[in-house]
Amino acid sequence: MILTHIGPEDTFFRAFTPQWAYQPESGAGAAARGGRFNRQGVEARYLAASADVALLEYQSESPILPPATLASFLVTAENVVDFTGGFVEETWNPIWAEAYCNWKGMAFLDEIEPPSWVVGDLVREAGYPGILYRSARSPSGICLVLFPELAKTTGYKASVFDPGALLPKNASSWSRG
Question: What InterPro entries does the annotation carry (predicted)?
Fold first, then answer.
């Protein structure tokens, strides 16, 4: 694996459902359904190096962008796996060739384990805090997945930038009518 560092305090972006704006640093949403590099039950924070890519990733397959909250994060992390150069047989375990598999189709339609979940497991088991990779929605865009369970042991930091305290503090802002 190729390792890199991020920061100190590099800016990344995250788009998320407005209902969860009071928990911008949570990885629980990804844990509920899984994500490209995390299986269900494993928390993950998916960020992008640009606001545009964060919104494209959030939009996913939807023809129109659903309502979203966009926030900036300041990220500092050592020993992040750098997969932005893609799969090179001499450098990567063969499972990495499937990092951009149709994980949603595999997990939810075919009900099989996506290889990208195995990739995430390998990274976590090796003690690396996350993966830097190319966006599936915008190949020139860069994304970052961080695994909160490794924040304490690796010392990575990913803090929402909210100097004016504009994000809500609890769920009371979001009542369903």
Answer: RES_dom
Q: Does residue 57 sit within a domain?
A: yes
Number of domains in the chain: 1
Q: CB-hemisphere CA count at 13 Å for 60?
A: 13
What six digits make up the tokens of 169? 């503090």
> Over its length of 177 residues, how does the chain's per-residue pLDDT go in tens digits?
899 999 999 999 999 888 888 888 888 888 888 999 999 999 999 999 999 999 999 998 888 999 999 999 999 999 999 999 999 999 999 999 999 999 999 999 999 999 999 999 999 999 999 999 999 989 899 999 999 999 888 989 999 999 998 888 887 776 665
Quote the CA–CA distance of 52 and 37 in Å, as a whole number.
21
Rg (CA), the chain: 16
- Judging by DSSP bridges, how do beta strands 142-146 and 45-48 pair with one another? antiparallel
Instruction: Please tell me what DSSP assigns to residue 60.
Output: T
In the chain the first and final C-alpha atoms are separated, in Å, by: 49
pTM of this prediction?
A: 0.91
For residue 136, what are its two tokens?
């599936």
